[in-house]
Amino acid sequence: MPGDDNDAWLKPAFAEMHRVLQADGFCFTFYGWTHPDRFMQAFRAAGFRPVGHFAFVKRYASSVGHVRCRHETAYLLAKGNPRRPDHPNRINGEFYDLFASLGRMPGQGHARKDLTMRPVLFFPLYSFLVVYQPDVKPIRIMAVLRGKRNLKRILRERL
Question: What is the pTM of this model?
Answer without folding.
Answer: 0.57
